[in-house]
Amino acid sequence: MADENGISMKVAKYSGVDKVDLIENAEYGYCSLIKSTSNILNKLDIENITKAEITSTVRKESRSVDPAALREAVINAIVHNDYSNGIPPVFEIFSDKIVITSSGGLPQELSREEFFEGISAPRNKELMRVFKDVKLVEQLGSGVQRILKVYDRNIFKFSANFLKVSFPVINAGINAGINAGINAGINMVNMKIRLNSTQKNIVNLIIQNKYITQEDMSTKLNRNIRTIERNIKKLQIEKIVERVGTNKDGYWKIIE
Prior knowledge:
Layout: E1 10-14, E2 22-27, H1 33-47, E3 50-54, E4 59-63, H2 67-80, E5 90-93, E6 97-103, H3 112-116, H4 125-133, H5 142-148, E7 156-158, E8 162-168, H6 172-192, H7 197-208, H8 214-221, H9 225-237, E9 241-244, E10 251-254
Helix pairs in contact: 1-2, 2-5, 6-7, 8-9
């Protein structure tokens, strides 16, 4: 829980359905697990694309992966990981799934059936207590039950040393096209100017939602508002991003 420690946690992103083509490897470690957890949740929230279906009467929006289930799986992986072997949790984004792997497998005293029933046997009791105090964990054993309200048991894979959760992406083909468009857009921008990671993420957020506010960017990227303002100003100077309309009623535009 120290502000500085040796635990490294990464979110890896691949362009396809396997680990052949790594396109991003973001580092969220070497700090308090509370901060790391918040950063990872924000990163996955950005990557969890919203899909819109417009009918004759209503516009329906849904996420590629159920956000509540994804949040529970992330927190469970971090809280219950076996850190004694030096292996941190791993978070991987593929075109057809999001995979979360924690080290240690199930505790010896807990069977798979008991796991699915929501019986709690915390591996790291003090870590669980701290996460509960800061309200990242609401109730012992409730995380798996929340996931099973949306997904089948077969998304969980058990081994002696690891526990893996694989969330299938809704409309993976559509999302692959969206991701390809986002990556292509960012690559085109990179031909004009070398972007830092914050600027890339800002472009990503604008491509997904042109009405996003700077305050929302600050929250999602875990950056203070002045950092967001400074990087947007740079993107505007380089004629990569422009503001259309007023600050209150306008929207962001990526300049072709």
